[in-house]
Amino acid sequence: MRHRFLLVLLFISSGLLLGTAPARAQFRWQRAVGTAQNDETADYMLAVPGGFVKVGEFNYNRLYLSKVNYQGDTVWTKRYALRRVQDVDARGLIADAAGNLIVSAIVVPRPVPPTAPPLPTQGLLVKLTPAGDTLWTRRVADPAGATLTALVPGNDGSYVAVGDVGSGLNTFPVLRKFSPAGALLWTQVVPYDNTRNGYLTNLVAVPNGYLVVSLSDTSNLRPKFITVDEAGAYQFFRFVPRDCGSAQLKLTSQGGVIAVGGGITQLTVQGDSVWSRAYRQVNAFLGLTRVAELPGGRYLAAGERSNGFTKDVGFVVVDANGALLRDTLLVRPGTENVAGVGLTPAGDYVVALGTDPGPVGYNDQILFAYRSWARLLPARAPAETAARLAAYPNPTIGELTLEAGDARPLTGTWVLYDVLGRLVQHGLLSGQARHHLSLTAVPAGLYLLRVTDPLRRTVQLLRLEKL
After folding, report:
1. Which of 204, 244, 251 is nearest to 228 (CA)?
2. Gyration radius (Cα) of the chain, Å
3. Burial of residue 226, with CB atoms counted within 10 A of its CB: 0-12 exposed, 13-18 middle, 19 or more buried
4. Is the pTM of this model over 0.85?
5. 329-360 in b/e burial notation, b at 16+ Cβ within 10 A?
6. Separation CA 203–CA 280 (nearest Å)
7. Rounded to whole angstroms, how far apart are CA atoms 183 and 295?
8. Going from the N-terminus, what domains does the chain have, and what CATH number goes with each?
9. Contact 385/437 with Cβ under 8 angstroms?
10. Three-class SS string for the chain?
């Protein structure tokens, strides 16, 4: 059931403008989707032709999808009863080239009889028409348990998902590829390294393969970006930068990868860090989980800010280098999670979230359109932003590359200091758009690089890490 947000105006507002007319005027529309006696959660939102689709769970044992148009009006809602399922957890939502929707999930089968021992988890894949009607369902099962989690459209029209198979110490991280008809084409085990299985948490399709996020079994080892080819075969890896999260990975229009999961990180398609930024709202960290690219190379990102025992939703607009242009914090009693962000054809920001409790009752799905910020804060002078240096890969095992945002030649000098401020190396920049700096002879550790560029009239400091 759809509810217009006369009462949501009490729950959602901008910063210090709580409940005032200027705050309310920023919303184009606000909607709640739910029922008074049931839980309807929101885990993912996807922009589709004509509007937006959200997926979550209905009373935790059915998939629940709803579509709204660009004005926030509900087009359809669907509840999918799954045969002999005790619990379902939606883990991914994508659309293929034909506009069909594909949902990945983890399900817990219902024991028969109910007093029987618990059954192992299974992976679930459901394909739906653009109108939300079921085309087929597929389950991935193993006597010891199996899952399907993050899902992306494959480079060849397939569907590719990460997950695992097994249990306990014999749990193996796997990558699976499915045909458009739902046939399992292959399963590849992608371990953290030769001695540790680890587990896979997310992925993004890149040219000629996939960039996969791999976490170790132990917390003292850093996550990796592992690149595999179109057949799932291992190619190479990069360590995930320390400030880089992986709640969502998206290929950008410029051919790079944007990652959110706490802050925002710009990556190359090989997993090298170009820049990374974190953001705070009202003296607390904003944990961003969803991102969308805006015109002009900017990004809209949203996430949760801890408010003691609950979480509120905040969103930011940043420039192509991660500099904050503007942000807003939305406050209400209860806890929210961001399901997705997007744009209307008019350029307004759309944010989908789940809320507990919701304005209708129990958990509800929330969606609103927020007036785009025509006047953005000039966080930095354009020349300074364009001249900002990036160093990648950082951390590095040997050589790294210096490059400025304006892609002009780098001239001047560089000096490398250790953490105690002692001079380690120095030299001249090459006069090329990219300068290659070798740290092969430098011991592992943290360093500070000082770059003096007379052409841009800048002195910049970069924190480097040698592995």
Report:
1. 204
2. 24
3. buried
4. no
5. bbbbebbbbbbbbbbbeeebbbbbbbbeebbb
6. 27
7. 38
8. 2-370 (2.130.10.10), 382-466 (2.60.40.3080)
9. no
10. CEEECCCHHHCCCCCCCCCCHHHHHCEEEEEEECCCCCCECCCEEEEECCEEEEEEEECCCEEEEEEEECCCCEEEEEEEECCCEEEEEEEEEEECCCCCEEEEEEEEECCCCCCCCCCCCEEEEEEECCCCCEEEEEEECCCCCEEEEEEEECCCCCEEEEEEECCHHHCEEEEEEECCCCCEEEEEECCCCCCCCCEEEEEEEECCEEEEEEECCCCCCCCEEEEEECCCCEEEEEECCCCCCCCEEEECCCCCEEEEEEEEEEECCCCCEEEEECCEECCEEEEEEEEEECHHHCEEEEEEEEECCEEEEEEEEECCCCCEEEEEEECCCCEEEEEEEEECCCCCEEEEEEEECCCCCCCEEEEEEECCCCCCCCCCCHHHHHHCEEEECCCECCEEEEEECCCCCCCCEEEEEECCCCEEEEEECCCCCEEEEECCCCCCEEEEEEEEECCCCEEEEEEEEEC
Mean pLDDT, each 10-residue run in order, the chain (467 residues): 36 33 71 85 95 93 93 93 91 96 96 89 97 96 95 96 93 97 97 94 95 90 94 93 87 92 91 88 89 93 87 92 90 87 95 88 89 70 60 85 81 84 87 88 87 80 82
* 324 touches 279 (CB < 8 A): yes
Q: Would you put residue 208 in left (φ > 0), alpha (ψ -120 to 50) or beta?
A: left
Q: How far apart are the C-alpha atoms of 136 and 145, rounded to whole Å? A: 22
* Tokens 């030299």 -> residue: 427
